[in-house]
Write a structure and sequence with these properties.
It is built from 10 helices and 20 strands. It is α+β, with helices and mostly antiparallel strands. Strands 10, 13, 16, 17, 18, 19 and 20 form a 7-stranded mixed sheet that branches. Helix 7 packs across helix 9. Bound molecules: oxidized coenzyme A (CAO).
Length: 420
């Protein structure tokens, strides 16, 4: 059923200007999600959706004037019990009434952050400030309570962008390329259209930014996991009895921690000026998880302090929660290094994109038996797993990239080292 959404009671204000449209046709809207921002000479207000549903039309655009009762959108009302609904922001993050904020007040820290649903929450003052500077709020990580974006986060982002020579919009990194033309594909045959999921909408710009702003190099190597696999198979029944799946990824996580200890500059981030390193003395590993809604990267904390079975259990739980769309924002923060494993699917190698502000990411492909000459010159069938390490060449030299994967391969080839 399609319903019109109207401007609610906004006091005595009439003909108030629409300064921002926060949603697009085809978006799945949650109840109380902000749809547009309007602004009088004294205040800005965000207008939330009274119901959840699919946005069929947006009936206003920036610059339009609206008053109480003006129709701003049409929404097709649907069940709110979808997996995507479950990963939405906690209720307290979303104002129940239009948020009236005096400008001088909204320049102070206000609720605004990117939730796991991929939406950007911003107070009118923070949004206005970002708009004036041409800053895309989706590019900013908030440091306020519960990850909220503060005005100083925008200032810091602009400062950093200018220092690194990039454009403040985040998307403009100095490339002067022609815009892709809109093509009418229906001229060539039947087509249908569907919107990108919210996770893809939010992760896409981040992946793009990381791809163009970080000088990536990918180092390829392979590790002999013949003994590791024999050990794993030997432990499988015990693992199953304990209700966990002991996959090669769990061993990979332990091996990565050993490599991060050996090469601390991989367990680091560039500081905000881009002139120094922040070295981390904890070992939180992000794991790329393929979900129906898109790729998410939950973080397993303190991997150095956990055993194989404990890690296997945690990995199983977080990947299930990720697929159910139930991960909280905090569970995707604080990673030191990411592992992206396509080993359960196939392929012989790929070039993973670094998950900034981390400095490196390990791609793992499917292990296969290969003929390998042993030290005595005898040909052996060995189980080899491809490793693909992408690293930030501003910080990590090629030689260290090669040393890192060599060390990793060495760790994986001797199960005793991993278990020690
Ligand atoms: N080589 C051979 N077999 C492998 C393997 C490898 N490198 N890695 C996993 N396998 C096997 C597992 O052992 C399992 O088989 P068994 O049940 O017989 O033991 C099977 O493949 C399936 O494993 P899995 O994928 O379900 O489990 P996992 O722990 O390896 O991975 C998870 C978990 C969540 C990371 C994975 O399911 C996933 O989502 N991967 C996709 C990540 C992704 O999309 N990355 C690309 C991002 S773009 O940079």
């Amino acid at each position: 059923m399609t319903e019109a959404i109207e401007i609610p009671d906004i006091g005595d204000y009439q003909d108030v200007e629409v300064i921002e449209v926060l949603v697009s046709v085809g978006d799945t809207i949650e109840k109380e999600q902000n749809l547009i921002t309007i602004e009088t000479d004294k205040a800005s207000m965000e207008i939330p959706a009274p119901k959840a549903g699919l946005l069929k039309s947006v009936d206003v655009q920036v610059g339009d004037k609206v008053s109480q009762g003006s129709v701003i959108a049409h929404i097709s009302v649907e069940s709110s019990d979808t997996p995507e609904e479950k990963i939405e922001e906690p209720q307290e993050e979303v104002p129940k009434e239009p948020t009236k904020e005096l400008e001088k007040k909204t320049n102070s820290p206000e609720p605004s952050h990117i939730g796991p649903s991929g939406k950007v929450y911003a107070s009118p003052g923070v949004r206005r400030f970002a708009r004036e500077l041409g800053v895309d709020l989706a590019q900013i990580t908030g440091t306020g309570p519960k990850g909220r974006i503060l005005k100083e986060n925008i200032q810091q982002y602009v400062k950093q962008s200018l220092a690194s020579g990039g454009g403040v919009s985040g998307g403009d990194l100095g490339f002067n390329l022609p815009k892709a033309q809109a093509i009418d594909f229906s001229a060539f045959g039947d087509i249908s259209q569907e919107p990108l999921s919210r996770i893809k909408k939010i992760s896409g710009p981040f992946l793009h930014r990381n791809w163009v702003s970080i000088p990536h190099v990918t180092q390829f190597d392979e590790a002999d996991i013949t003994e590791l696999e024999a050990f794993r198979q030997g432990q499988k029944t015990l693992a199953e009895k304990q209700g966990v799946r002991l996959t090669p990824l769990v061993f990979m996580m332990k091996a990565v921690v050993s490599a991060l200890r050996e090469f601390p500059h991989f367990n680091a981030s560039l500081d905000s000026e881009g002139t120094g390193l922040i070295i981390k003395h904890y070992y939180h590993i992000g794991i790329a998880v393929d979900t129906p809604q898109g790729l998410v990267v939950p973080v397993v904390r303190d991997v150095d302090q956990k055993g194989l079975f404990g890690l296997a259990r945690e990995l199983g739980e977080i990947s299930q929660r990720a697929r159910d769309g139930k991960l909280g924002a905090k569970e995707m923060q604080g990673g030191c290094f990411t592992i992206s494993s396509l080993g359960g699917i196939g392929g012989s190698g790929f070039t993973p994109i670094i998950n900034a502000p981390e400095l490196a990411i390990l791609g793992v492909s499917k292990a296969s038996k290969k003929p390998v000459y042993d030290l005595a010159g005898e040909l052996q069938a060995r189980l080899m797993v491809p490793l693909c390490l992408s690293y930030d060449h501003r910080v990590i030299d090629g030689a260290d990239g090669a040393r890192f994967t060599k060390f990793l391969a060495h760790q994986l080839s001797d199960i005793r080292r991993l278990l020690l």
